[in-house]
Amino acid sequence: MSATADGPSRRSFIKGAGAAMAASRLAACGDAPPQNVIPYAEQPEDMVPGRPRFYATAFPYAGFVQAVLAETHMGRPTKLEGNPDHPVSQGATDAFTQAAVTELYNPDRSRTILRAGAEVGWEDFADMAAGLAGPGLRILTGAVGSPTLFRQLQALGERGARWHLHEPWPAPFASVGGAVLRPRLDRAAVVVSLGDDLLGPGPAQVHNLRNWSVEGGGRRRLMVAEPSLTLTGAAAQSRLAVPERRLSVLAQAIAAELDGGNFPESAPAEAEWARWAAAALAANAGRSLLTAGSGLPSQVHRSVLAVNEALGNAGRTVLPTEPALAKAPDGARSFAMLVEDMAAGAVSALVVIGANPAYTSPAGIDFAAALARVPVTVHAGLYPDETAALCRWHLPLAHPLEDWSDGRAVDGTASIIQPVIPPVFRTYSAHAILAALLGEPAARPHDIVRDTWRAVWGEDAFAERWRRSLLAGFIAETAAGPARPRPGEEPSAPPPAGDGLEVVFLPDPSIGDGRFAAVPFLQELPKPLTKLTWDNVIGLSARLAARLGIENGDMIALSAQTGEVIGPAWVLPGQAEETVTLFLGYGRRQGAGEATGRGYDAYRLMPAGGESIGATIRKAEGRARLAVTQPWQTLAGRDDIIRTVAPGEALPREPERPSLYPEWPYPGPAWGMAIDLAACGGCNACVVACQIENSVPYVGPEQVAMGREMHWLRVDVYYGDRGAVHFQPIPCMHCEKAPCEMGCPVNATVHGPEGLNQMIYNRCIGTRTCSSYCPYKVRRFNFFDYAGAMPAAYSGYRNPDVTVRGRGVMEKCTYCTQRIAQARIEARKEDRPLRDGEVVTACQQVCPSRAIVFGDLADPDSAVSRARRGPRNYLLLGELGTRPRTSYLAKIEEG
Amino acid sequence: MGIYQPITEQVADITLQRRFRFRWWLALLASGALVLVFIAAVLWLFAAGVGIWGINVPVNWGLAIVNTVWWVGIGHAGTLISALLLIMSQTWRNALNRFAEAMTLFAVLMAAMFPILHLGRPELFYWMFPVPSTMGVWPQFRSPLIWDVTSFLSYLIASLVFWYVGMIPDLATLRDRARRRWQRRAYGVLALGWRGSAMHWARWRQAYFAIAAIVFVLVISVHSGVAMLFAASTLPGWHTTLLPPFFVFGAVFSGFAVVIVLAVVIRAAFGLHNLLTRDHLDLLGRMLLTTGLLTAYGYLFEAFHAWFSGELREIATLRDQMAGQYAWSYWGAVAMNFATIQLLWWRRARRSVPVLATVAILVAIGMWLERYMIVVTGLYKDFLPSSWGAYQAPVSEWALFAGSIGLFAFLFVLFARFLPLMSMFELKEAAAEEKGEHG
Fold this sequence. Notes:
The structure holds 2 protein chains of 2 kinds. Chain A is α/β, with parallel strands linked by helices. Chain A is built from 26 helices and 39 strands. Helix content of chain B is 73%, strand content 0%.
């Protein structure tokens, strides 16, 4: 994005579209646009301007839903919160789900049906689609968790059509013999992970982080062996960097150590680590968990399961369950078989729904060439992407929050997805498209979904259960039941790969496998372990980089059997020496909005299963200018920034520091926050939640590279001694003796009556003295009119309770002052004091590991006061005498 | 009568005759071109916002603040020469004070402009003044910025008044000597009806000395205030009590450097070798050396302070100054502000125009580098390594700086043409005293 220039045509279009929508669609529920514009004279019941309404619904990606409560203002969804009653979410969401609400308004979405590039109507498509069902028809989708979608696919199957599945990255949980192995970290005292990124981004992140966090701060013992640092590795007390090809050997070694089998040949460090892990697993039998990355060969999972069964962990710390996702008829080969059939001319029509195989198809599968042999090609997607460009037909797919559907969470719990807004553009849901293929182009997704559940519940119970499910946001007691893994059918172990350089593939932490590439808020979300934005890099170890004479940002070329990619090098701490990491999701050629063309495309090298491959590396020409939000990632000797205690150890109490200025009086509450560094998993959900809640603009890669990112809340990463990785979320400290308040010449930042360090935007003249004086550098300045430079369509998601900041004005974390005000108003209406826990900040609410506590410090019994009195409490840079209201709870490290 | 007439003619002719027209037009056009650059840079800035600069978080102050500190410092020598030396009856100042005061005025104008230009919303700069308004919001008086606004403004007004009051007798001379009607009118109005009566002289002397006393206090307070802008923060490298005197020394130092440059130029341009003698240059050279050594003391004790504190972050900032990304600004400052002035121990160097001028120019640059070092090195690495960053001034910032030099020169060229460059009556007075003493 250029910060100073906007596309007038796009803006004016969206403005028009937005105005039309606001005028005609707000109070309407149906699909058909009303013929007459009706004045808003009769207010619908419960619709009070200024009062948000919440709808329980769910947001699906990669096949699984995240249960959410969608906050809407006058018909506009502005924020998604985790559904607090949902067994998986428990009120939290991940970063992707936080950003999902902006995707509704994304101006880069497609909005018209195209036939050979020309705009046509739904009827044209329906007429064509009605004749397609038959043996030559193939449907290609991503992972399917929706029972309704699966029902429709089966119905098409009965008419001879065949369903294929293509998901670029393996599902989060491994499965063995038809059973999915779902970890229950909350029951495990010791977890040993072999390349399983339990806490990393993905549909299971909330599930795992929630379970991983320990109430009251303790830590589960976590041992991780992995080729490239992940959030799981960062949280581990003991981490071994090994090439991916050695993970199966480690699994063998652990199994051998426990059952006395043949200990495989391995390096001393590996053997030691395996013995250590095995001992820890055995010592905690029944409360330990061995897990392996779902992309590893199936026989590894079989042996891992055997270990867990032998230790009595199975059924406790790991649950073999029925799969929540629908299983494709041809298993892992589903996509490959489709492309083979296409190339052979056996496919007469292909309908791609919600997938982008032209971009995500792995190396060795030439989807584009095969597609050229298919007479009728249809693509339905959110964006006019690479596949859309190759297909004759393109249908704009409705955003999941725009139409009825259903789905399952990672534990199998089903949710009905109810729309929270009429489609922003003229878009169609997958259900409507499949219905058209079934010859019912007029069928409404609402009825299609109801039919599915009517069949499940029976006609009598249906109405009541439907209503209850919509109200709750999920269908109780639908978690996947236990399953018995069928006995071994896996092929024998493949010969261990040779030595030499190994390439591993990881989905990008911020935009996943590329499906969120068009979301600028996620593009600008600093990747937790590198703090990069807007680009991907080729990760390599420090030793390898030194050997090649490469520095961060130098372009390097990586050649494998499957092809070559050129990208900027980045030294990843904790990288296995002979391993190079490629990140998926970039190098988009079409349909990724402002990120189109950024980075390299790792799919061109990735084999079908995403497993590691061998390669050679060389230096290439040039350097990349990367937009990094935190160039320095070590503590530079300032170890008191991150404090660590042994279990049970107490930090010295913070002394009262004198000040020349008089104390502030607090007749009412005095807000404060405590952030538990032992719990923080670095997942970034808080960063996006804060950005959405407070309408914080994104600024684009050039501005980020200049050091002008706007995030009010950042998560700092520091690489410490002995491989330690520290995450530290930094909101405004709301200092009691704030240097910024003293520095501002115009009273634009002042101390509020409840202890908040307030920022008065319309008083600010932009001297930036406050930022110069701030020891924590939490203040963000509108060097340009960032909010105005964003496409106007994004004004849709903005929080109406938060002021939009203009050019030349300072801004920063407010402790979500609008939420405090809301709670205060409610309390006053009921004529009672505020209750502890009544005010929940956006970052606190979203946090899957419950690392953030917020409340009234004047109330000695509040959760935050208790946390602050606790033994691990410390103030960041407390010696400066700023007396921050945000404090930290030290990490816990065993001696 | 014989000794006075040549002085009057020589100085007044610059204004009233056409002798130096060609050179003057050349200077005006050259500086005028830079003024256009300045206008363009300001228009660009106002249209696009401060985002066109290289500033960011953490380095959210850039060349604008560097330039402010530098320009206001330059102003100090003028005031010091005029006010301090007047009070101390150092008559050698008479050849220098008028143009040095003009320099002060223009330099303070430049300095006062930058803090406004650097605002995110410059149109609202007046909110820093205690303007009674319906908003009922006052400035925040704990802020060093408010102290600076107050001291800058009072300095500007006091300098202007001092300069003007000191010029009144000379304006009357010009009025009397002018042949064209508009000149007589203009100088007549400016001379405020000065007739040179004994009463006039008595009143004038009272006023002039009183203003001199006030202005002298401002020399100390203005740059101490500027230093407080940094010292009142918490940042390592800034948060030190040494800063105010250090800034004042540096300010006077840089001011003398610019006075020397201007003196050399004026001398050559208008053939004033007899009035602005090598003795004057020698004295200025000594002042430069003295204030330079005082500034060097500041460098020494800044480093000592950091080392003696034993504080990790203070020492780290010292290390960043000396060996960090912007070490060139530190060593540049040390080389130009300390090493070069050692030449001035030699009388021959002080009396050599090329040597003295070169040293003075280097000192002016060196002092700018020092301001750059203080602003940028203080900000780019502070407390949390996570928020460390880097800064590079793009063309938009340099253009504004170059433009401000142009504007300064432009104003000075206009001054040289239209107002008496030297204090004629004081020169004559000194000459008379000298004559009286020698019989």
